[in-house]
Write a structure and sequence with these properties.
mainly alpha
């Protein structure tokens, strides 16, 4: 499967998931608003979401997939046809160590949930004991999701190694379906009661995702049987690599965790919710582009580097960067310029007020400045992981997290939650710049002439689209607080108009030809 086709498969299913996620967030905003119940639930949801990002979209993809593929290739070389069985045995050995650890870890986290929430929020100085107690209850309900989603990640890594990308990419859809059903069917009479149904839905979705991945693996002839835990040399190697890989891949999520904690401690009630809703829209391009491209190029890079074909590896990363810029730059410009009409049209209803719209939109406009950086991190880090270098990305990630913390402490006082968003966006760019410089320094990546030329044209085309959206925004914003149908039409015209302007600019500037875009989605060897 070609890079573009694999990325497109993942991206298309991620699009379905993110659209459903947007529906979920619209319903959560409608029935939870941006107050006590919403802030408490989002704090409880932050840690499970962090682990999902670290494992499902990070560490297992970065470490387990190359090791699984290498085990399969080495076994096939010694005994043709035995590779899959050897790789499955390795996966069973990993599961035998992972499962008991997850059970113990989850129990400990549930016991000490109050201490964890206090460490994250300082006890919610703005919300009082009721808000803190609610956050602790919801955290205990959502914590089992951590164990479930970690095993899902292991099974998803196996399916990705077998080029069954779509199954793992479809799993998050179940999370959104569970939370949508919970808020529509089982919600309480108040936001306080509804927050409990959302927390239960999170853990139920983890069980459903696990069953889905187990069924898909069984169809591929992969059934993992429990074994006595044993630290084999390969398992030890994976455990050594996986922690720095998780930290390296999770820099963005750790930065958001820091930002959320500071907002809960020092800002007014609702700030946590403003940052969450802004981040949800901001993460849409990352899910559609960064995760798809990053997941698709890792097996290819592993094979190319393993065979000593550095030239092909450089070509793969250049084209991945080009694709990432082609899709992420216009997304960043659109989210920045049209932040207010987008938030108003999607979220402003019932208990989500016009003031909440302004608060979330201001955070979104600043968050969006980092969208290309968030995507490029996912594209650049496979260049290290494919070479079994997990330490370098984690050092860079730790530096960017320190930069984010300092930026937060400097900007949170004069700018409030907008300062938190700014520090997060700037730290992502620091991460990207250092990652690229290190790859370039070691002669693993050089921007070729095609990337430089097309990159410049993509920047100009995005700017043209931004100007068009700037003029369209005030007219569309007028209709964003209307009926559901009016909102849908206004949002469609705004997004469709921006996309049309961008397409015309791309072709007019010669960044791409129509024949080239058609070739991108065709199946190639």
């Amino acid at each position: 499967m070609s890079l573009i086709r694999a990325s497109g498969t993942i991206g298309a299913l991620t699009l379905v998931s993110r659209v459903l996620g947007m529906v979920r967030d619209m319903l959560v905003a409608r029935y939870l608003g941006a107050g006590l119940a919403s802030d408490a639930f989002l704090i409880a949801w932050r840690l499970p979401n962090l682990f999902r990002a670290l494992f499902a979209e990070g560490a297992f993809s970065a470490v387990f997939v190359p090791m699984f593929n290498r085990t399969m290739a080495e076994a096939d070389k010694d005994d043709p046809g035995s590779g899959k069985a050897a790789a499955v045995l390795f996966a069973e050995q990993v599961l035998s160590v992972l499962f008991p650890f997850l059970v113990i870890f989850t129990i400990i986290m549930m016991i000490f949930a109050a201490q964890i929430v206090w460490a994250m929020t300082g006890g919610f100085p703005d919300g009082g004991p009721q808000k803190f107690a609610l956050a602790v209850d919801l955290t205990r309900i959502t914590f089992p999701y951590l164990a479930l989603i970690s095993i899902v990640s292991l099974l998803g890594g196996i399916l990705n190694s077998l080029d069954r990308f779509w199954v793992n990419a479809a799993a998050p859809i179940l999370l959104n379906i569970c939370m949508i059903v919970a808020v529509l069917v089982f919600r309480g009479a108040t936001p306080y009661e509804t927050s409990y149904t959302q927390a239960v839905a999170v853990t139920v979705s983890g069980a459903m995702q696990l069953l889905w991945l187990m069924w898909a693996c069984a169809r591929e002839g992969v059934v993992l049987w429990p074994r006595m835990p044993r630290l084999t040399p390969r398992v030890k190697q994976m455990l050594i690599l996986i922690l720095p890989a998780a930290l390296g891949q999770g820099a963005i999520q750790f930065n958001l965790l820091i930002s959320t904690s500071l907002a809960a401690r020092y800002l007014q009630q609702g700030a946590v919710s403003y940052l969450y809703y802004a981040d949800r829209l901001n993460q849409l391009p990352l899910g559609l582009i960064g995760i798809g491209v990053g997941t698709a190029i890792l097996p290819a890079l592993s094979r190319q580097i393993g065979s000593g074909n550095e030239g092909a590896a450089k070509e793969t990363q250049n084209r991945a960067i080009e694709l990432a810029l082609f899709l992420s730059l216009p997304a960043a410009v659109a989210l920045c310029v049209a932040a207010t009409p987008l938030i108003r049209g999607l979220l402003q209803h019932r208990v989500f007020t016009p003031a909440d719209t302004i608060g979330a939109a201001s955070a979104l406009a600043v968050f969006s400045l980092g969208v290309p950086a968030y995507v490029l991190i996912k594209v650049l880090t496979p260049g290290f992981y494919a070479r079994q270098d997990t330490k370098t990305p984690v050092r860079v990630a730790l530096f960017s997290m320190l930069f984010n913390l300092v930026g937060n402490l400097i900007l949170i006082w004069p700018l409030g939650h907008v300062g938190v968003a700014a520090a997060t966006a700037f730290s992502a760019w620091v991460n990207v710049i250092i990652l690229y410089w290190l790859l370039h320094r070691d002669d693993h990546l050089q921007a070729d002439a095609r990337l430089m030329s097309r990159g410049a044209r993509i920047v100009v085309a995005s700017a043209v689209m931004g100007v068009a959206l700037w003029f369209m925004g005030p007219y569309s914003d007028h209709y964003m607080a209307g009926s559901f149908l009016t909102r849908v039409i206004a949002l469609s015209l705004l997004c469709g108009g921006g996309a049309l302007v961008y397409a015309v600019a791309i072709f007019g500037l010669g960044a791409y030809r129509l024949s080239e875009l058609k070739a991108l989605v065709s199946r190639r060897k």
